[in-house]
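Record 1 of the preview.
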Amino acid sequence: MAELAPELAQRVLREQVASMYASAPAAYLADFLTALVLSLSLYAATLRWQVLLWMGLHLLLTLRRAYRGYQRSPDAAEHSEYWARVNARNMLIRSSVWGLGPWLCLPAGPQHMELWTLTIVMMMGECAGGALSVAFLKRCIPRFIVPSMIGLVTALAWRGDRAHLFLAAGCLLYMGVTIVFARRLNTHLTNSLVMRFEKEALAEQLSRQIAVTQRISEEKTRFLAAASHDLRQPLHAIALFGAVLEKTLQGREEERHAARLMDAVGALGQSLDTLLDISRLDAGVVEPQIQPVALNPLFLALNHVFAAQAAERDLQLRLRATPCWVNSDPRLLLQLLSNLVDNALKYTPHGGVVVAARARGPLVWIDVRDTGIGMAGEHLDRIFEEFYQIGNPGRDRAKGLGIGLSIVQRLSRLLGHPLQVRSRPGGGSRFRLILPAVAALGAAAPEAYPPGALPLPRRVLVIDDETAIRQAVTELLRAHGVQALAAAGEAEAEAVLAQAALGGAPIEALLCDVRLADGADGLAAAQRLRARFGPGLPVLLITGETAPQRLKQVHDSGLRLLFKPVAADTLLQALASLPRY
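->
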């Protein structure tokens, strides 16, 4: 066996010594009982006082119980080498006492051959049984076997006749075979311990790596949450001021500049929303609403979204009509397919993208195929990692952030729709989504209001610690006929609510930021204000938070939540959808 590393060798020795001393009580008792049976047999046949002396030595060794020191020592495991030497010495003493037996207890003469035979059988049995218990420690094997068997062999050889010499040779051969067997058993036991400790070391190393990976993932999530919040705050104000400016400049030549500004803000907001999707999925706040879904309307929506993008790049986008219905969440499924189509268009320089659905028994396959650059096999497992992109070392923004497929994988797992990928370099890629098929059903379109006809609340209190956002939101609401008041925190909001109630014009809705100044909790503040001024007071929360735990906490509150930056139309629609107070 190859030499072990010092630390591993120490662990193996510690386990071997512990095993030896654990079996010591049973071994000592078996040794004493074997000697007692042999002594009684010899004494009954010879009445020799030497038999009593030999039996007394065995009794002394048994009563001494040499293993008790190890069992009583509180730090025995730390001194394994010392206790290994102690055990080897005790083995040598016990074996030597056995080796004295044939010299002390057996008379000469052929008439006593039966006693010699009994002694040989008993000592060989003791040798074989003891070899199994001492095989844990290699050094103990010769110390236990050799003295006793040499004592027997020399006593037989001393008699000098042919029969005794033949028995001596047989005992000598038996001693050699027993030593070889015990050493092989020791090698097997040692290898088993080495393999066990190596597996434990690998498991511990894997556990540390998992912990490091989890810590890195948590740090990444915290970083993204902090960065996203800090970016969303000013962008939210810009979007709202831009909406006010766009409404003010309607019908004027400068309106196109405001439209371009809003397009840029929308593009930046879309990038931040992509990061938000990751956090929401990791937080577990996205709950799929599984229902029968017709694929044709989804394909039509995909065509509306991506037809212009495909035309700009001179690519063909074909979405084949299908009568298939599936069991899924229509909103999340549309997002999943949108990410797949968007990814296919970005990495297809020529040709096109085909989206097709086919019924396969109780299943429906949705394939998104492209004629793009394709991928080598080593990339297929990594394309679902965040920010991993093939062929984009310069981080070209036109090719996205590299997290679209990561969202696809999360959504496929959330919906329970297995996803398969097949690709080859230069030969394009095929992403296949496998969904359960259902029978066709009718569907009703949701009600929608045009912006000019929204049933907005008459008086809204805006709670936000940033002055620019308060001004932007209040000006937007006032531009749409809403009496908007503002507060920077909970105490100021409480005063505004109390004054409005006394004046006979109570606030009809709260629009509150989740994170207020000095780390104050906007969610808790809104809940306290509702408890004081009416449990039915509608609350619309707005946040730039993307930390999964925080999102789950807000989600569990049951209050409506919007994520910054919020488009003006989205904000107005959300306010209009709140229950009337």
